[in-house]
């Protein structure tokens, strides 16, 4: 049993943080105890620290399976800065660089090793791991193992066989996205044994949620942005590449520095615009959902949805990019009737097999738009979490209750047109 004071000292010493975020300390303890762990924490909740701190406090190598080279690089760079020896192995390395890293691993020079799941089945790799002596296997973005999640990666199925090869090594799974079904699937697929399960609250108390009915239009958006403090930065999500361009032009013309961001842009231009936003050189990014994954800008003060989000889950993740510093931030969805018909057309353009699910998700998010109840309660309820209060006091419906009307009938009418 590690003393709480010792853990906090280590936290301060290695990461420079004065205190743990909710759930972090309990997870760190279970990891240190050598238990299998399943942890569900929202984006920005601080999952990395839950395995990085144990990695510096114990012997042996912590092997982290991660889905993207870019994510691995960010993490290894951050650990470098903190003075924690870490490295990654991936297929894009020059031979000399690879050699250097492998030599370091042979010498036991690293505390953490990041790998893509593909590496686990390369000939000889498991023998290497055996020689290097692994303390635990961490599966980051663990929902990728489940077909029921939104980001299934078949390569993640290569993780489970490691279990047979290293029966005594604990496995820890981390994710921000998991419905009950995905949660059970992750536990089963990884063969977790009596895991310590941690489900942090998904509540983001500093975010205010609003659905602005009938306010759709660039003029309204400009007017709304002008009510915000001048140096507030934010993201405006739009449903199409064309709309991101149109919005960025209109905002710039109105004197609000804005750029467009979508997957159709040249990668160099994309990273330039992303950098500009992170450095506060540009106030607003008008983006498709291609923007956001893995972006750690803590002072995003607002997230606007200018078109209908694809799903309630997507909406939660996108709004979740606001206010990661814990200070108040606004999530405003500009909603008008016509948007639903347009969103329906997008659904109709999908391959037939995807249509029923896409339609169900659209119906769900439209029902949310028309709901009179507490938004926070509804969002959290969607993730299976019961908000302890009837009213949060920080969403449009709690702040300015509208006259009630039969939203269900209205929404159904819209969806059948
Ligand atoms: P997640 O993987 O859960 O989305 P990260 O591990 O990337 O989150 O952490 C998000 C941000 O929170 C990072 O900038 C990280 O440095 C910061 N952070 C993590 N734990 C703490 C803490 N205890 N105190 C302050 N900041 C923290
Ligand atoms: Mg993470």
UniProtKB/TrEMBL annotation:
One of its GO terms (biological process) is DNA replication. It is an enzyme of class 5 (isomerase). Its EC number is 5.6.2.4. One of its GO terms (cellular component) is cytoplasm. The keyword Aminoacyl-tRNA synthetase does not apply. It catalyses: Couples ATP hydrolysis with the unwinding of duplex DNA by translocating in the 3'-5' direction. Residues 28-196 form the Helicase ATP-binding domain. Keywords: ATP-binding, DNA damage, DNA recombination, DNA repair, DNA-binding, Helicase, Hydrolase, Isomerase, Metal-binding, Nucleotide-binding, Zinc. The keyword Acyltransferase does not apply. GO terms for molecular function: 3'-5' DNA helicase activity; ATP binding; DNA binding; four-way junction helicase activity; hydrolase activity; metal ion binding. Coiled coil: none annotated. Its cofactor is Mg(2+); Zn(2+). Belongs to the helicase family. RecQ subfamily. This is DNA helicase RecQ.
């Amino acid at each position: 049993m590690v003393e709480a004071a010792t853990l906090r000292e280590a936290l301060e010493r290695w990461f420079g943080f004065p205190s743990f975020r909710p759930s972090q300390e309990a997870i760190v303890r279970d990891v240190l105890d050598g238990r299998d762990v399943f942890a569900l924490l929202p984006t920005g909740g601080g999952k990395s620290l839950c395995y990085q701190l144990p990695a510096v406090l114990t012997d042996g190598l912590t092997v982290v399976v991660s889905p993207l080279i870019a994510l691995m690089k960010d993490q290894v760079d951050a650990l470098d800065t903190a003075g924690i020896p870490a490295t990654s192995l991936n297929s894009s390395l020059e031979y000399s660089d690879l050699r250097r890293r492998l030599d370091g691993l042979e010498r036991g020079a690293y505390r953490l090793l990041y790998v893509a799941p593909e590496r686990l089945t390369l000939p000889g790799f498991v023998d290497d791991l055996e020689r290097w002596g692994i303390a635990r296997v961490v599966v980051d973005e663990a929902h990728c193992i489940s077909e029921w999640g939104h980001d299934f990666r078949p390569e993640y199925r290569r993780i489970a066989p490691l279990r047979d090869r290293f029966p005594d090594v604990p496995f820890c799974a981390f994710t921000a996205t998991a419905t009950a079904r995905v949660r059970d699937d992750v536990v089963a697929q990884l063969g977790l044994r009596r895991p310590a399960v941690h489900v942090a609250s998904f509540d983001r108390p500093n975010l205010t949620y609003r659905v602005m009915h009938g306010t759709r239009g660039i003029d309204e958006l400009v007017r709304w942005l002008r009510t915000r403090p001048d140096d507030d930065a934010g993201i405006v999500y739009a449903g199409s590449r064309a709309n991101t361009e149109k919005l960025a032009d209109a905002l710039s013309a109105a004197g609000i520095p804005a750029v467009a961001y979508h997957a159709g842009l040249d990668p160099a231009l994309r990273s330039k615009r992303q950098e500009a936003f992170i450095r506060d050189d540009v106030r607003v990014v008008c983006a498709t959902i291609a923007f956001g994954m893995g972006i750690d800008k803590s002072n995003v003060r607002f997230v606007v949805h200018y078109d209908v989000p694809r799903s309630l889950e997507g909406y939660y993740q996108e709004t979740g990019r606001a206010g990661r510093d814990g200070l108040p931030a606004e999530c405003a969805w500009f909603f008008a009737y016509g948007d639903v018909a347009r969103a329906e057309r997008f659904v109709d353009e999908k391959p037939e097999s995807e249509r029923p699910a896409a339609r169900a998700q659209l119906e769900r998010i439209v029902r949310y738009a028309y709901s009179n109840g507490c938004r926070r309660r509804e969002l959290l309820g969607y993730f299976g979490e019961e908000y302890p209060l009837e009213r949060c006091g920080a969403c449009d419906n709690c702040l300015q209750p509208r006259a009630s009307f039969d939203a269900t009938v209205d929404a159904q009418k819209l969806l059948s047109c």
